[in-house]
Amino acid sequence: MWNLIKPRPATLRLWQLGLLVLLFLFWHVMTRPGLIPPFMFDNDKQAAFFFGEPIKIFGVIRDWFFINADIYQHLWVTLAEIVMAFAIGAAGGLAGGLWLALSPMASAILDPYIKAMNAMPRIILAPIFAVWFGLGMGSKVALGVTLVFFIVFFNVYQGVKEVSPVVLSSARMLGASARQLLRHVYLPSATSWVFSSLHTSVGLAFVGAVGEYLGSSQGVGYLILQAEGSFDINTVMAGILVLTAFALVLDEMVGAIEKRLMVWQPKVGETEKL
Amino acid sequence: MAAPAIDLQGVACTFVSKDHPGQRYTAVQGVDLSVGAGEFVSVVGPTGCGKSTLLNVAAGLLAPSAGSVQIFGEPLTGTNRRAGYMFQAESLMPWRTALQNVMAGLQFQGVAQAEARTRAQEWLARVGLADFGDRYPHQMSGGMRKRASLAQTLVLDPDIILMDEPFSALDIQTRQLMENEVLSLWQAKKKAVLFITHDLDEAIAMSDRVVVMSAGPASHPMGEFAIAVPRPRDVAEVKTQPRFLELHAAIWGELREEVLKGYAQQLKKA
Q1: Which of A23, A101, A136, A182 has the lowest tally of Cβ within 10 angstroms?
Q2: Is residue B38 part of a domain?
Q3: pLDDT at B100
Q4: Cβ pair B86, B105 in contact under 8 A
């Protein structure tokens, strides 16, 4: 029996799901009023008040998606913000990273500025962006871009710096022009760095969307903010869960693209047991 | 007489440490070296004598501190367009398959995709990799990668071939096969070859002329030996000929002292 479900590549998903179920079960048992006697709080309603109840959370999510079907406009706004922040930030980071890595003088001049901007706590910029770009999507996208840009930028910069000098010389001897070097050597060589940064950036793009939290009229962050105003912890948790699920989906998409583009990378253990 | 394929006159290369501008190292100095069109010249010398530096100068990857470089009678500016370079280290692009790697140079020149593919496939077949065109470099053995880079270099039909210890990482059998392959390809096309090696056997077996470099720093050619062994040669067989042994003894006599000097200097530095 154990051999059948032992953790191995084939049962990986099963174990991941099982762990999730276990987590929610634990949450349920700890918070459901009247299920177990309270040992942390004065009465058995308080745990549910502070941590929410999984069953009610799923109820909220069900209402959002199926009964009232009122989350779609909010979700649409939030996801649009995230994808835009992600795309603009990644494209900007890629271009900036390539440019600075290939022109040492510009890089030397801008170095302290880049470091300063990266060290700046950018979440604090959210209210400023709200003043600049209004309470609509613009300010949230701007916040997301500032978060995503630097991650991608530093990784691309590093990736370009680590191009094998032999491969570079070889391409030059084969007659590659500066443009061809960029397209056929620097870019492919930096891709593995780009993708590792994109995985980190997905999470940060979602952080950017939570700019909604600071002032907005729609979006999942707005729903969370409203629920928090009325101490509706279940709705807050539901919003967080929905965002997390979509973050996972976006990360999977990045992973799928990565798998397609990185076929040339050596993988460990390619032998097959016969 | 036609201008030599490569002509180095009074070439010196001094490297300055970026972090400590006071620290300089003169790798080569006063180098006069020429390779005629269609001539196969090997350069041997102790480790760290600047053999690869000379090759990079001839390739135009490195500008000499002093001296002139002429390629077929014209001063060299930028990378040497008439030369192909086979590196000591792995030089294939890991993100391209063998075929795409061989096609790279043709693509850079703007040759049509279909034609580039046919010509690259031809060269892959010539180096015995006809069925391995879709492999990525990490899926090939060291010998196959070397053969792929040989095809990558030669598909462009360069007039000059620069080789930097191309076979030093290979086992002895593969190495002899590759050496014979290079010799027969060279025999057919008669390109100018500048071949860098630390292996005296290899140098004598393959070349028309062997140049011995002195130990660094400020290394320079100190002896030249014409290898009057008839061609075509087989690198394994040629080593048993009495003429080969004589030459080997003569060159080694000169090289030995330099190798010891070079070794002593490395010990001092360590």
Answers
A1: A23
A2: yes
A3: 92
A4: no
Quote the pLDDT of residue B106.
92
Which sequence spans correspond to the domains of chain A? 72-261
Q: Is B61 on the interface with A (CB under 8 A)?
A: yes
Measured CA to CA, the distance from residue A231 to residue A225 in angstroms comes to: 10
Q: CATH fold of A72-261, please?
A: MetI-like fold (1.10.3720)
**Structural domain of residue B258, as residue ranges?**
6-80+191-269
The total domain count for chain B is: 1
Q: What is the pLDDT of residues A248-272, one digit of tens each?
A: 999 999 999 888 888 887 776 555 5
CA-to-CA distance for A73 and A137, rounded, in angstroms? 13
Give the residue from chain A lying closest to B100, CA to CA: A184
Residues of chain B with Cβ-Cβ distance to A264 below 8 Å are 94-97, 136-138
pTM of the model: 0.79
Domain assignment present for B212? yes
Q: Find the residue in A nearest to B139 (Cα).
A: A266
Q: How many CA atoms lie within 13 A of A169 on its CB side?
A: 22
Question: Which of B91, B160, B165 has the highest number of chain A CBs within 10 A, making it the mutation to test binding with A?
Answer: B91
Q: Which residues contact B166 (CB under 8 A, 6 or more apart)?
A: B86, B87, B88, B146, B149, B150, B178
CB within 8 Å: A173 and B80? yes
Average pLDDT, chain B: 86
